[in-house]
Structures
1.
Amino acid sequence: MQSMAEFGESISTVELKVGDSATAVRKAARRLISRGCKLILGVGANSASALIPLANGNPSIRFAVVGYEGQAGGGDLAGSNLDAISFDSKLAMMQAGYLAAAKSSSAVVSVIAQAGALGVREQAWYFRQGVEIYNTDLGATVRVFNLEGSTPASWRYVPAGASSAAVAKLTQASIDEGADVFMPLGVDGSDVASLVAGSKKFVIGTDSDWAAEPAYASERSAVLASITKPVSHAVIDEVQRAMGGATPAATAPAAGEPQAYLYESVITPEAGVTWGAGVAASITKLAQEYADGSLKFTSYGK
């Protein structure tokens, strides 16, 4: 809607379900092409392989994948009219880990993560880095339940495609272990938040502002913070690019990969939830040290 106000452009949509095939995504995009759309946005990492052939066949139309991760896949090479919009959550996840450790009364926090979900191991890695930074700063011994092993392969996950019952089981096991701050990754957050709220614990939301989401209305008081992606900003930039306007420069892509535009995810406090002045200052300091290169942490995969 903001793009309509700023640029006078109308919006046409085709709704898809999570997990829809590349064929379904491509069919939806063809409908948008037939409507004369100048810019077609696909949401989710898996839409890349579906959109590349259409982008190559329609060079006068811009295409973009919001939430692109990793290789384009599908065997086709991306042309100059396909953009990849990605979100870097390293800093936000470290801040979340630091915050969780600082707010834990039991010195136990928990990550509830799904095996095989895109980016989950990396996100969990940086969350644990944040806990370790807190421990170093304060001489504390906060531990991350489910991430006790030295490598991501040894950590405890719910299976890929696990039921709500499986997510609830691992959440309850974490509560029984004493965890009082939770970080759900790659799972239905409401399965975690409902148990956490009922036990008077905290949860940190991901991808959107959970305290503002109707789906989390009954768990709002348990939401300590949320990690949000600046999707609106990214989409407005993409609309401006499609209209020939100037926007931040792309990262040089690898051969056959789309033009890459990277945005930083951010951690935001929730209304009515107090982090504490000292904690808030430490979270800000992490961002400053990350920006100037002085923050000491171990990169994922190193």
2.
Amino acid sequence: MLSGQDGSISSKRTVMFIFTLLFTGVVISNHITGKNIDETLKDQLFYLLIWLIAMVFGEQIPAMISAFRNNTKEPPKP
């Protein structure tokens, strides 16, 4: 899940996974305890998570498009 195309652990995916866990923890703790954190902090975590997801999956889009054009099942390795 966290490995890149060459099999090594991707730092972007690791950071995205950590921030996903952090954001999920914030949302769950708000529902359980009933205490709200500052809305700006929640918004900043949310936008950072969106940016990280776009960075990680944005790198894969050109390979997916070329695989679709070539009608291959596997995207080409860079």
3.
Amino acid sequence: MSKKIEALVTRGHHIRAQMKDLKDELAGIEHSLIDAGGGEDADGRKATVIESAPSIAVPENIDDAQGIAGEHFGKLFEKVVTYKPVKSFREVAGALLTKAKAGRIISLCEKPKAPWIKWS
């Protein structure tokens, strides 16, 4: 391996460690500022606490919501049907379909992914 690549790996590891430390420090700072209700520094830069409304989600027991809403349930919730590929999609497609059809459906369903680095 070239010295340039070794230097990049070393520097990458150092940056990742610094980012983790800074992320942890920032989380602590934000926690303290939330407890304090926000604040301002000597240069006039502000940290404002934003109170968000709780998000709306489908309850675990949809029947409870249906019982409360009654005839208006359909106006409060929309029914959504989704499909997702099964685990081992490529293998299952190969076992169920002809080689040509398996190749076509796999190609249709694949989405390109950018390469990434696994740091270890």
4.
Amino acid sequence: MTGMMVFEHIVNNVPTTNIPPFIMQSENGAGLKAENLPQRTAVELIFRELGALSEMQTAVTILTSGNVTIGFDATAQEGVHVTTVHNTTRMLCRCCGLTFRWYGGRLH
């Protein structure tokens, strides 16, 4: 459960410093005993591994498929501009790049 909570916080752009305390609060709030919480360094290693896994999955998809379409898509909704890069084979589609830009803001 803790690993999935780390993943959810990373996906939702929670700063790595805040993830262990948030997990502790969530587990205590659910009536669970918060044990073996990951430290910030472990959270940062998980973050790097997820990036490496995403790159590896994208590379494997491209290299093992005879025909791959690489697409770019952009949309704006509720003040956020989202740009994705994805590759599609006959059987699957993988997102291999994603950026967010708040209107008038910086890239995230």
